[in-house]
């Protein structure tokens, strides 16, 4: 068990502070059905989110496993010191005004150093962060709304931006998310250490990193080695390509964004995949969750449009992805199924001659799969559900499922919806 296990899997939670943020943490824990004890600490209030507060941290019935500290930055340091002294499992430090605000608040750096000293051996995450969501076990040390739901397995996401993390929880892309963790300034505990802890959970399938600046090179190397040993891929979205983004990173979480080219070379060397948009970030994680790491960059693409076939080919341009040519056996099956007019190629435009014919679509999709390819992609453009009917698209999905079974490559075939 690593030093973060108790924090991320608590049986007791304490909330320090009774403002709107702390109250929301309690409500979110109650909403998701947290099964453990929830305690709140406030010196004067008698009721916070339906709970009777303890007057001081020292009055808590036992050392809490996980704590959300929702008080101002000066009081945060005192709270960290008290929690460490009673043996708490770890704390989320929500307040800002530390090293990230050193130009606006002159004592920010000194205050962050004081907080680190106060923590001692107790893990702290932040400051200047929202906390974490554990959708596997129903734990939400999180002071706001979120869009996630409980899941039995999924990807873990670690973000330096709490607002980006909130937005990612609102995704409707069918990506199961096991954890969302925000790290803020990474004053003590960096994303690399957190990543190793989350990847150790067998229910976590892949790791996504939203990075403004690398916390510690040696720790990142260790994270990459852990991921490789476990066979769990990492994908990163790193900001800082522009000078403006690099300046924003410093003022946001006190991170040094560094050279974008250098970051790219580092990720390549460590085997960390890199994307450049939030949509690509989520879709890549979804693909990795469903099919895992591909053993080769060879793909079979199927669509009923020449335009879509062209787009698929262009998307692979400049990358290592290839579309292996069809074998004679594949051509024979496809010609019999699709008729004499369709041009047989990969990417394949199978036209609309077989649209609505589940048997023919199944045969086509299965024929496109061979030992040469690591992944089969069926492009489907669904109509608007509020204005149109889509029974033929449901049929196409059934054909994909049947093709997975027929080809014997169920873990290598997926649909790409646009």
Residue-averaged pLDDT, rounded? 91
Q: Specify the CATH class of the largest domain.
A: Alpha Beta
The CATH topology of the largest domain is given as: Rossmann fold
How much of the residues is beta strand, in percent?
A: 15-25%
Name the CATH superfamily assignment of the largest domain.
Succinyl-CoA synthetase domains
> Overall 3D geometry?
elongated
Task: Describe what this molecule looks like in 3D.
The protein starts with a helix and ends with a strand. Residues 248-253 have low confidence and may be disordered. Strand 1, helix 2 and strand 2 form a beta-alpha-beta unit. It has 14 helices and 16 strands. It folds into three domains: 1-127, 3-Layer(aba) Sandwich (Rossmann fold), CATH 3.40.50.720; 147-292, Succinyl-CoA synthetase domains (Rossmann fold, 3-Layer(aba) Sandwich), CATH 3.40.50; 294-417, Succinyl-CoA synthetase domains (Rossmann fold, 3-Layer(aba) Sandwich), CATH 3.40.50.261. By secondary structure, the protein is an alpha/beta fold.
């Amino acid at each position: 068990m690593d030093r973060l296990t108790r924090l991320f899997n608590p049986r007791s939670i304490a909330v320090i502070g009774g403002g709107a943020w702390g109250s929301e943490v309690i409500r979110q824990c109650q909403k998701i059905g947290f099964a453990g004890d929830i305690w709140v600490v406030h010196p004067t209030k008698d009721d916070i989110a339906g709970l009777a507060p303890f007057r001081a941290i020292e009055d808590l019935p036992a050392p809490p496993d996980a704590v959300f500290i929702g008080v101002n930055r000066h009081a945060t340091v005192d709270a960290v010191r008290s929690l460490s002294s009673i043996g708490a499992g770890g704390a989320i430090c929500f307040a800002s005004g530390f090293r990230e605000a050193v130009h606006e608040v002159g004592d920010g750096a000194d205050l962050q150093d004081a907080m680190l000293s106060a923590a001692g051996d107790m893990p702290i995450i932040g400051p200047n962060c929202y906390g974490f969501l554990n959708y596997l076990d129903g734990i939400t040390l999180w002071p706001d709304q979120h869009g996630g739901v409980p899941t039995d397995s999924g990807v873990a996401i670690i973000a330096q931006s709490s607002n980006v993390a909130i937005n990612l929880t609102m995704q409707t892309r069918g990506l199961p998310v096991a954890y969302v963790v925000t790290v803020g300034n990474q004053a003590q505990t960096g994303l690399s250490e957190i990543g190793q802890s989350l990847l150790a959970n067998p229910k976590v399938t892949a790791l996504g990193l939203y990075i403004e600046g690398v916390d510690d090179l040696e720790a990142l190397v260790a994270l990459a080695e852990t991921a490789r040993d476990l066979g769990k891929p990492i994908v990163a979205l790193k900001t800082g390509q522009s000078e403006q983004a690099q300046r924003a990173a410093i003022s946001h979480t006190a991170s040094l964004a560094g050279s974008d080219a250098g970051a790219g070379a580092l990720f390549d060397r460590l085997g960390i995949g890199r994307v450049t948009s939030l949509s690509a970030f989520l879709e890549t994680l979804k693909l990795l969750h469903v099919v895992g790491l591909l053993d080769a960059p060879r793909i079979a693409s199927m669509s009923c449009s020449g335009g879509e076939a062209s787009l698929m080919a262009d998307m692979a341009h400049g990358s290592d992805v290839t579309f292996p040519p069809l074998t004679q056996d594949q051509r024979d099956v496809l010609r019999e199924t699709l008729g004499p007019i369709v041009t047989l190629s990969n990417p394949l435009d199978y036209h609309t001659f077989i649209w609505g014919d589940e048997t023919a679509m199944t045969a086509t999709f299965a024929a496109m799969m061979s030992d040469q390819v690591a992944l089969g992609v069926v492009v489907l453009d669904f109509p608007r559900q509020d204005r149109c009917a889509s029974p033929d698209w449901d049929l196409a999905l059934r054909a994909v499922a049947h093709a997975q079974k027929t080809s014997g490559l169920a873990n290598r075939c997926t649909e790409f919806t646009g």
